[in-house]
What does this fold into?
Amino acid sequence: MNQPLPPSYYELLEEIQAVDFVLVELTLYLDTHPEDYEAIGQFNQFAQQSKKLKKQYEQQYGPLRQYGESYSGYPWNWNSAPWPWQV
Amino acid sequence: MWYYEKKLQYPVRVSSCNPQLAKYLIEQYGGADGELSAALRYLNQRYTIPDKVVGLLTDIGTEEFAHLEMIATMVYKLTKDATPEQMKAAGLGAHYANHEHALYYENAAGSAWTATYIAAKGDPIADLYEDIAAEEKARATYQWIINLSDDPDLNDGLKYLREREIIHSQRFREAVEILKEERDRKIFF
It folds into this structure.
């Protein structure tokens, strides 16, 4: 990663981190409260939101996940966005 | 199987190069109550614990790897620009002699990580109480490191991780109650 990242990179990344944090919290909560109908509704709603934001991120910065969970550009762009410890 | 996601669970920032803090922080990387121990402890217990809590152990174990990556990022950022002299002054001379700036699974006193940090008793209640104790010990360790740290950016990440230990402990306590209810239902007089 040679070019400095624009502030919009960090804004989008933090938005994804915030939404995914809600999903982690709801996941652990639902593991011990599997019949909370309202929480499951929230979980599915945030899962949809997360997918939308990641699609937007990947179109600009490259894949977040591997093994077919994200699409690749040409050439293979797994390395195009910086690694997490580099930002 | 597992999928890697190319992002940290929570942003990690440090104010300045500070190998002294890295030396303390490595406790949460390769120490007894650190994130590696946590991840391996929970994921390993899954195979012999009742189905009702396998999901929770899988999910907390997976989250621990995200925390391990956050700690690694903190240690990397605190040490990457340190000179050999700075490493030596921070008590990391012996580390530098063996590993240069590479990370290593060791505790703050420099002892390598060992599987003896992890218990696996095969008794669900014993294992879950072990997990609750591990979370409380990790929470306390985060607090001691925050007390030693004068880096507000680092402390933001450390406080997040400290709060996660509280949540994990809470969820494990609920798992104990779920298993007790299950056990009591199976007793017929």
Observations:
- The first helix of chain B runs from residue 19 to 25.
- Chain B touches chain A at residues 3-12, 53, 55-56, 59-60, 63, 69, 72-73, 76-77, 167-168, 171, 174-175, 178 (CB under 8 Å).
- Residues 20 and 91 of chain B are 7 Å apart (CA to CA).
